[in-house]
């Protein structure tokens, strides 16, 4: 639907999660924001203002469609109606990217509106793989799979998360979306070294980064428990971890997510500008190489 | 990560999603076995992060979706009520834009609001306005196309109604209550209402129809001819005010076209 001069891929720069309250400010002056992410499920109505705004935005910005409701990690089969809705949206929009989560959200007739965790085992590996094969066949496009944020561990897990993601990508041909905040949140909550996680991660398969803010809480033993709340600026240690990622992987399209207590446009744009700033050395190196 | 932790748990450590889901929606349920903190100990507080995420996410979505209800009962009461509702009626699909469809029925028997008998009607109106917001786009008819038809032709014509258009028959003055709370309208009075919901541009609208307007518009939506709809309306209400009904339909962009009669 975008005009032909557009290269239909995400630019290697900063994007933000689109919020309707930013529509006017963002179309007036996007500043450092060069692409937008939308949550697929918010644009599955039949018409009205949401789709009209999206049509308008898609003429100006590359769009990444981010699904939050397919339940790829679910025990049950993928919902054929939801697959059809995703297909309808991506066929109409022809987005620059489509991504979903290593998580589940629907079971026994209930959509729980959260990204719920799964153990990493031979059984879940084959199930997730089958679901991604089915999704990519159905949409006729490659997807990116995002690493989750974790609050607890499964006794039954037999794979590490980076190995599990690498194996899924190897079997399905999907790419990966590396959420740097999720790595930091999980590393704090499950007490592992976030840099070691990054070093073990198949960075060559990563086609997009996510950055977001988190909240801090504590468990019943008084241990730090970080909550992936998307309601604050990106935390300093996450920027530091982002630098580590960039040093190893180089620059990629990088998204700032801010879904709760959404700030004024200027505040969000400043976060995107900071993400661009962090990637500048890598971008310069890539250009001169 | 996983291999750095030795677990001492015995027995089956498979956490089914059935068990997870049950414990998620019911705080009285034990946290499933097989979920731990980094030391292999039970992870109750950690599990409650998911419980809170689900309850908070769904109740906030309802608060956004039912602004007048929330105003009528207060945000805090509404959130607590939503937490009861979501355990009985979790969303059936990932389309959160339509979440809460069972709220009118729930409110009919929720002990905390039984004395506020008009709440179910207000919930129906708020749901209908949300459906209208997300309905397919359609342009309104040029009204002169209707006025140009002679009487027999008009009676045989089938009108195309906007995808956003629907009709509610309420026992309580839901539209007046909505206006009072959202538009500083006058103190709500009266009883039953026939309410037309439609959309002008991208903005949902609700307008009161004269008595008999509901069966009239409903039969137009079903694709019956103008004459058939009028017959139904006058059977319901002998002094049915067609002129007023048509002016509401035109003003709310509810009519989008007409089939030329054969």
TrEMBL record, chain A:
Signal peptide: none annotated. InterPro entries: MbnB/TglH/ChrH (IPR007801), Xyl_isomerase-like_sf (IPR036237). It comes from the Bacteria. The lineage of its organism: Bacteria, Pseudomonadati, Pseudomonadota, Alphaproteobacteria, Rhodobacterales. SUPFAM superfamilies: Xylose isomerase-like. It holds the Pfam family MbnB_TglH_ChrH. It comes from Aliiroseovarius zhejiangensis. This is UPF0276 protein GCM10016455_03910. Belongs to the UPF0276 family. PANTHER family: UPF0276 PROTEIN HI_1600 (PTHR42194:SF1).
UniProtKB/TrEMBL annotation, chain B:
It comes from Aliiroseovarius zhejiangensis. This is DUF2063 domain-containing protein. Gene3D superfamilies: DUF2063. Residues 16-107 form the Putative DNA-binding domain. InterPro entries: DUF2063, DUF2063_N_sf.
């Amino acid at each position: 639907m975008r005009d032909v001069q557009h290269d239909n891929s995400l630019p290697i720069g900063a994007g933000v999660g689109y919020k309707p309250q930013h529509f006017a400010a963002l179309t007036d002056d996007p500043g450092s924001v060069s692409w937008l992410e939308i949550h697929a499920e918010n644009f599955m109505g039949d018409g009205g203002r949401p789709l009209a705004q999206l049509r308008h935005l898609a003429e100006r910005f590359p769009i990444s469609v981010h699904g939050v409701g397919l339940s790829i990690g679910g025990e049950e089969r993928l919902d054929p109606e939801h697959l059809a809705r995703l297909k309808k949206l991506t066929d109409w929009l022809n987005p620059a990217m489509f991504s979903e989560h290593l998580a589940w959200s629907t079971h026994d007739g209930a959509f729980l509106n959260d990204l719920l965790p799964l153990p990493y085992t031979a059984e879940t590996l084959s199930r997730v793989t089958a679901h991604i094969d089915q999704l990519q066949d159905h949409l006729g496009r490659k997807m990116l799979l995002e690493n989750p944020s974790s609050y607890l561990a499964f006794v039954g897990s037999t794979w590490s998360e980076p190995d599990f993601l690498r194996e899924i990508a190897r079997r399905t041909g999907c790419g990966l979306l590396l959420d740097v905040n999720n790595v930091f949140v999980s590393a704090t909550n499950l007490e592992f070294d976030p840099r070691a996680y990054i070093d073990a991660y198949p960075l060559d398969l990563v086609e997009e980064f996510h950055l977001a803010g988190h909240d801090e809480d504590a468990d019943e033993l008084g241990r730090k428990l970080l909550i992936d709340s998307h309601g604050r600026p990106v935390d300093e240690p996450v920027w530091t971890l982002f630098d580590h990622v960039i040093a190893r992987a180089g620059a990629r399209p990088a998204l700032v997510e801010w879904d709760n207590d959404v700030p004024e446009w200027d505040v969000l744009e400043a976060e995107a500008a900071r993400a661009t700033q962090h990637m500048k050395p890598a971008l310069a190196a890539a250009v001169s190489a | 990560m996983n291999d750095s932790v030795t677990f001492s748990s015995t027995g089956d450590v498979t956490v089914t999603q059935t068990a997870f889901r049950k414990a998620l929606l019911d705080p009285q349920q034990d946290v499933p076995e097989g979920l731990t903190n980094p030391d292999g100990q039970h992870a109750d507080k950690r599990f409650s992060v998911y419980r809170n995420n689900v309850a908070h996410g769904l109740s906030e979505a309802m608060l956004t979706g039912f602004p007048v209800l929330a105003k009528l009962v207060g945000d805090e009461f509404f959130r607590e009520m939503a937490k009861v509702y979501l355990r009985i009626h979790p969303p059936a699909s990932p389309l959160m834009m339509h979440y809460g469809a069972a709220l009118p029925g729930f409110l009919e028997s929720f002990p905390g609001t039984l004395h506020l008998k008009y709440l179910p009607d207000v919930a129906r109106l708020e749901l209908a306005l949300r459906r209208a917001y997300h309905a397919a786009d359609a342009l309104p008819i040029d009204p002169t196309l209707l006025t140009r038809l002679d009487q027999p032709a008009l009676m045989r014509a089938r009108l195309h109604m906007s995808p956003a258009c629907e009709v509610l028959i309420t026992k309580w003055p839901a539209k007046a209550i909505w206006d009072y709370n959202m538009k500083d309208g006058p103190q709500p009075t009266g009883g039953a209402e026939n309410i037309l919901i439609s959309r002008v541009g991208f903005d949902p609208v609700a307008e009161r129809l004269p008595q008999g307007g509901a069966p009239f518009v409903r039969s137009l939506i079903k694709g019956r001819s103008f004459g058939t709809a009028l017959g139904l309306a006058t059977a319901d209400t002998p002094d049915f005010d067609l002129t007023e009904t048509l002016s509401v339909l035109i003003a709310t962009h509810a009519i989008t076209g007409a089939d030329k009669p054969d």
